[in-house]
């Protein structure tokens, strides 16, 4: 167990050194590549304006999302009505999707508990 701990520590140290050496250049390269998205000057007014744009853009997309939701639900109802025509591949994909949803739920629960498996903190 102690040898594994030393091995993990050495890997973490290597990763830290790599980030320290290459992180700044990657950051600069990323900013240079995406500089057309940066708002200059970054004032409070500009940040509030962008925040409002994001909010109202999201609100404007609600009708389309609502329509898409009902289309997806109708498709699922139609699949359920014609389940005798359902292929094994489709059932397998649906099962994998359900399993993935459950895994994300479990990951969220573990994160919400403070990365513990046994229960919530008092």
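^ Assign residues to that structure.
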């Amino acid at each position: 167990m102690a040898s594994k701990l030393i091995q993990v520590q050495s890997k973490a140290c290597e990763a830290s050194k790599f980030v320290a050496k290459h992180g700044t250049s990657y950051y600069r390269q990323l900013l240079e590549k995406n500089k057309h998205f940066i708002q200059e000057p970054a004032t409070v007014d500009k940040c509030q304006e962008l925040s409002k744009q994001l909010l109202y853009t999201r609100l404007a997309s609600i009708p389309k999302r609502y329509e898409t939701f009902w289309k997806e639900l109708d498709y699922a109802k139609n699949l359920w009505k014609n389940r005798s025509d359902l292929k094994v591949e489709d059932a397998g994909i649906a099962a994998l999707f359900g399993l993935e949803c459950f895994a994300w739920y479990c990951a969220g629960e573990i994160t919400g508990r403070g990365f513990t498996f046994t229960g919530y903190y008092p």
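Residues 2-33 form the longest helix (32 residues).
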